[in-house]
Amino acid sequence: MTPPSHSRPGLTELRCPSGEQGQATAFLTVLVIALLLLAGLVLDGGTALAARTRALDAAQSAARAGAQRLDLPLYRTTGQLRLDPGQAVRTAQDFLAAAGVPGQVTATTAAVTVTTHTDRPTQLLQLVGVHTLRATGTATAAPTTPGNQP
Fold it and tell me: Which Pfam families does the protein's record reference (predicted)?
């Protein structure tokens, strides 16, 4: 009896032409790196969008809080809406401190402007040297009464 053959009829052995060994490996490596970068953009892009939303939300809320600090004696005597800039700045800064968001506050007698910054560490983009993403939010608020809203 003849021992069974390990080769099947009709199949031939494939060999790479000289100089083409490793071409598939290089292609696969580039493809994996490209997919990791794409995943990094999606994941860290979502993180950046969330950070921008948080920065803008904090700026808007702090500006609204500051815009509530009216010059009360003037309002009570004349009905004129005018901010107390010092109190408006302090109130907005206190709000930012309580929220844990750094920012700058400016105020005039007409409006409060707040600019906030948040930094978020990246997750996958660290592989290409991007370690943090900075988001900025800016908002301005002015005092209003129910009768003079825009």
Answer: Tad
Least Cα distance to 89 among 64, 112, 122, 71 occurs for: 112
Amino acid occupying residue 16: C
Which whole-number Å values give the CA distances from 55 to 6, 11, 34, 89, 147, in the listed order? 68, 65, 31, 18, 30
Q: How far is CA 9 from the centre of its chain?
A: 62
Read out DSSP for 22-83?
THHHHHHHHHHHHHHHHHHHHHHHHHHHHHHHHHHHHHHHHHHHHTT-B-HHHHHHH----B
- Whole-model pTM: value is 0.69
Give the C-alpha separation, 6 to 8, whole Å.
Answer: 7
Structure confidence by residue, pLDDT tens digits, 13-33: 656 565 556 567 778 888 888
How far apart (Å, rounded) are the C-alpha atoms in residues 73 and 75? 6
> How does 97-121 read in b/e, with b if 16+ C-beta sit within 10 Å?
eeeebebebebeeebbbbbbbbebe
DSSP state of 4: P
pLDDT digits (tens, 9 = 90+) for 54-79: 999 999 999 999 999 988 888 888 88
